[in-house]
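Q: Sequence in, structure out?
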Amino acid sequence: MPLEESVLVIGAGVAGLSTAVTLAETGTPVRIRTSEHPRATTSAAAGAMWGPALLQPADRVLGWVTTSYHRFVELAADPATGVHLEYGRMAARFDLGDQVPPEAELLPDLRRCRPDELPEGFVSGYRGTVPLIDMPRYLDHLTERFRAAGGELLHSPVSSLAEAAEEASVVVNCTGVGAHELIGDPGVRPVRGQQVVVRNPGIDEYFVEIGQGEEPVAVMPHGGHVVLGSTAVEHDWSRTAEGGTTDGILRRCARVDPLLSGAVVLEEKVGLRPGRDAVRVEVERFGGAKIVHNYGHGSCGVALSWGCATEAAELARG
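A: Exactly. Output:
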């Protein structure tokens, strides 16, 4: 029989943990079941930073990303969370124009880059301070908060939605790209991202390339290490790091910042971002249970995490 008062969250990436923390810290009994420990999820392979999320549905996305921004700024006051505020550049190889996404206006120090502040090959950009998130440390922080609030985290894969509905009357689906199989959503597709972690040679500003290509440059400093990226290859299910891809990432990032030439590689990471035409946060009835879906965030799972978690938790509580 379902546990009437308990909520089952499927998935322990940033979406699942944020939703579970939101529920547990307001007194709701919560259990997480996951096929991967938090540090083995795609979330752990992210850069990661808060930034504009050009996804659909645009009006809801704006609200989600705004909520998340304010939460990350609060978390940055405690270094133990892995969240910190960093100054840096967002640049493009094309003219970005004078209009910026509405959420970019949240940044109090946002300004256009001067031509001499742009690396070779880039023609437009902005400077500003944004939250950066050291994901392994941050996922540990969320896990500790969840358990401190009485939550239970089980390394126990869920084979079907029917199995979940048998276990709990309220289920929150935060399976990311796993929703392709778990609920049979053909609109979910993997977007393979590979990152390279190097010892920090003295970089204290981030750099992010704005664009839709498969090989955007990203330089994310987190104290003693820097996460370099990335790739964005659709419909590729491989989670094995490729040496040629690593070499390409190192070359592209060193062109942006010569300090990275010859950087010592500490780790290679691969994650499958859950691509979808629109983020899905909504309720479905299945097998007598209420299923709250929270997936399809693409490369913006971290940036949307707290906003989507807040809405998903409200839907779960009814």
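The mean pLDDT is 96.
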